[in-house]
Amino acid sequence: MSSSFARQIIRDALRIRDQELVWIHTWDHSLDLAQEILQQAHLHGAAVVLSMVSESSITHLLKQAPLEAVNTPPSHLFNGVSRANALIILDGPENPGIFRTADKGKALAITSNLTRLLSTAFSKRVRTVYVRTTAFTEQAAKTYGISHEKLLQESNRCLTMNQAKMLDLGHRIESLLRKHREIHLSSSEGTDLRFRTRGSPLIDDGIIDQADLQNKNVLTQLPAGTLSIPVDETSAEGTIIFTWPRAFLSDTIDKLRLDFKKGEITDFRAHKGEKTFERAIRGGEKMSDRLTRLVFGINSQASTPFGQPLDVLIPGTITLGLGDNSAIGGRVQSNFSYEHTLNDAIVSIGPTAVIMDGKLTL
User: Fold this and answer.
1) Which of 216, 231, 266, 345 could make a disulfide contact with 185, Cβ separation 3.0–4.6 Å?
2) What are the pLDDT digits (tens) for 94-132?
3) Closest of 191, 173, 179, 184 to residue 227, by C-alpha
4) What pLDDT was estimated at residue 1?
5) In CATH, what number is assigned to the domain containing residue 22?
6) 269 domain residue, yes or no
7) What is the CA radius of gyration of the chain?
8) Distance in angstroms (rounded) separating the CA atoms of residues 260 and 238
9) Residue pLDDT, tens place only, 131-146
10) 248: three-class secondary structure by DSSP
11) What are the start-end ranges of the H helices in 251-356?
12) How high is the pLDDT of residue 104?
């Protein structure tokens, strides 16, 4: 699969051209795929820079380095990426368990570099592919207590998305979001939340084409299948209860409840992972406790929840994000980013209920 997947990234998703500069950022466990991508880029006449982070070096930082050193952003990486035409990020690490016993401030500092890298690429209009699948390792599945085989099956199925169907669904939601800014979520579990969107919706269909570039949409993720829009960070009022779990910093955040007033989290509770969540939002920069983005799943191939990023693709779900939203054109820049998928709410855009009983009504 690695050769065909590499071709999909270079030829289809990024449409690399002669003389372009491609930057590949990988973990050591996904170096084989990175080299396949590099070779495909060379076949298209591109120059390539490959940067790699090793799990052993991150483990050393987490155990030995002072927090001040870990908090220092790798400026050479950001400066180099800002000069590239295209960026490919292979997600990791192979074993997220390295964060389990680490100081959560250090863990957040290291993971926040990815948020900053995406923000840098977006601000410089660098076409970017964020590859989720490389994080779906056997060790990761074991850490989060899920089936590795089923996770890979779901990921591979999501990669066979029907682009036309995805775009049709995305455009129908987009049409409503352009007419109405008011969003209301409610559920029998106790969710009752209202907020406003701002800016323009971005549809991620796995390809960055000329229309995307004209709309300043330079980011795609593989597997793809979302519609994202920034949220007015002062607008959230009410309560949301997530019944699906979320894998985060080698922990699982389960049954998370968030209470909002004027956009800010005033209280939170979780049956599991509450301390991890608390340390993360307390240790984040500005807006880490604000609702800042809304994401609709539009990949018809996605169906199985894992508490992993694939949940965000499932039609009939929405995903809410805290912290940074600059990678989707929002105005909040932060070192913190957290998202959680909601599967059981009635979701209304203005007067129209677009999701009921876990199904899209459009």
Assistant:
1) 345
2) 999 888 777 767 777 788 888 888 889 999 999 999 999
3) 173
4) 57
5) 3.40.1830.10
6) yes
7) 19
8) 5
9) 999 999 999 999 999 9
10) strand
11) 274-283
12) 66
Q: At 161, is the secondary structure helix, strand, or coil? A: coil
Give residue 305's domain range: 163-360
- In a shared domain, residues 288 and 223: yes
What is the Cα–Cα distance from 18 to 63, expressed in whole angstroms?
43
Phi, psi (deg, nearest 5) at residue 68: -60, -40
Distance of CA 360 to the CA centre of its chain: 22
Both 109 and 189 in a single domain? no
List helix spans (H) across 159-198.
Answer: 163-179
**Residues 268 and 345 reside in one and the same domain:** yes
Confidence at residue 89, expressed as pLDDT on a 0 to 100 scale: 97
Q: Which of 303, 13, 30 is nearest to 157 (CA)?
A: 303
| Domain match, 125 and 12 both | yes
Whether residue 169 is found in the same domain as residue 126: no
Q: Which residues contact 232 (CB under 8 A, 6 or more apart)?
A: 181, 195, 196, 197, 198, 263
Give the residue from 107, 131, 155 where a domain finishes.
131
Instruction: Examine the pLDDT at 343 and tell me if it is beyond 60.
Output: yes
Domain presence at residue 22: yes
Per-position DSSP letters for 93-148, written without gaps between them:
-S-GGGGTSS-HHHHHHHHHHHHHHHHHHHHTT-EEEEE-GGG--HHHHHHHT--H
3 state SS of 313: helix
CB 161 within 8 A of CB 223: yes
CA–CA–CA angle 335, 203, 144 (5° rounding): 55
Number of structural domains (the chain) is 2
CA 298 to the chain's CA centroid = 15
Q: Are strands 202-204 and 86-90 parallel, antiparallel or unpaired?
A: unpaired
The answer to whether residues 250 and 192 belong to one domain is: yes
Contact (CB, 8 A) for 205 and 163:
yes
